Amino acid sequence: MDIYIAFGSNQALGRRMPRKVLCEAAETLETRGVRLVARSSLWQSPAWPDPADPAYVNAVAQVETHLTPTQLLWCLHEVEEQFGRVRSQRNAPRTLDLDIVDFGGLVADGGEGPVLPHPRAHQRAFVLLPLQEIAPGWKHPVTGNVISRLIDALPPGDIHATAQLGPFVRGG
User: Fold this and answer.
1) What is the separation of C-alpha 68 from the centre of its chain, rounded to a whole number of angstroms?
2) Phi-psi group of 147: left, alpha or beta (phi > 0 → left; psi -120 to 50 → alpha; rest → beta)
3) Helix, coil or strand: residue 144
4) ∠69-98-130 over CA atoms, to 5°?
5) In angstroms, how far is CA 4 from the centroid of its own chain?
6) How far is the C-alpha of 121 from the C-alpha of 144, rounded, in Å?
7) Which of 14, 58, 81, 163 has the fewest CB atoms below 10 angstroms from its CB?
8) Cα Rg for the chain, rounded, in angstroms?
9) Hey, is 146 helix, strand or coil?
10) How many Cβ atoms from other residues are within 10 Å of residue 58's Cβ?
11) Is residue 28 classed as helix, strand or coil in its secondary structure?
12) Is the dihedral of CA 56, 120, 84, 34 positive or negative?
């Protein structure tokens, strides 16, 4: 089953800069039964909705886990909290953001667990570009659109503002 998680950070955690936070979060997930089997590169994108906030570092990983979608969501929230995530206002800067992009093609409205697939992932260059690196044949579970078509539908400014930084590896 193909499960994809998006990683993001635009605030340091102590002396650890966002790219280090993402790498450490990946290692923490592996200790909780979420094995990363493929990792995109790290990417940088402007903060939204306020581009004056620090830029984000993003990545996507394909994972394997015995967890259900709801259990995985709880696990992601626990790791976010462990890495200093404070849920204040929507789209506020954060030390760590972890989202389930797709859980084996499941479609769910969030009534008993997470909304699947992620409701806005198909509109975000900072998710689609890293996802395309590790899953070039991925199709959106609801629309059936292939990832290249979703990327082609993005505003050109979003694509050009998203830049590859380097590898998403252990130790950051």
Assistant:
1) 18
2) alpha
3) coil
4) 105
5) 8
6) 14
7) 14
8) 15
9) strand
10) 28
11) helix
12) negative
Catalytic positions are: 85, 94, 97, 99
The string of DSSP codes covering 34-79 is EEEEEE-EEEEE--SS-TTSPPEEEEEEEEEESS-HHHHHHHHHHH
How confident is the model at residue 171, as a pLDDT?
67
* Residues β-bridged to residue 102: 4
Q: What is the pTM of this model?
A: 0.95
The pLDDT tens digits for 53-109 are 999 999 999 999 999 999 999 999 999 999 999 887 777 789 999 999 999 999 999
Indicate the SS3 state at residue 12. Answer: coil
CA dist 30 → 36, 51, 169 (Å): 7, 32, 13
| Distance, CA of 151 to chain centre | 16
Nearest by Cα to 127 from 158, 87, 91: 158
Structure tokens at 79: 């790791």
As given in the structure block, the two tokens for residue 110 are: 């969030």
Residue type for position 168: F
Q: Which residue is it, tokens 């505003």?
A: 155
Q: How far is Cα 163 from Cα 166, in angstroms, rounded to an integer?
A: 9
Residue with tokens 């890495």: 83
Cα separation, 27 vs 71, whole angstroms: 18
**Rounded Cα gap, residues 125 and 148, in angstroms:** 11
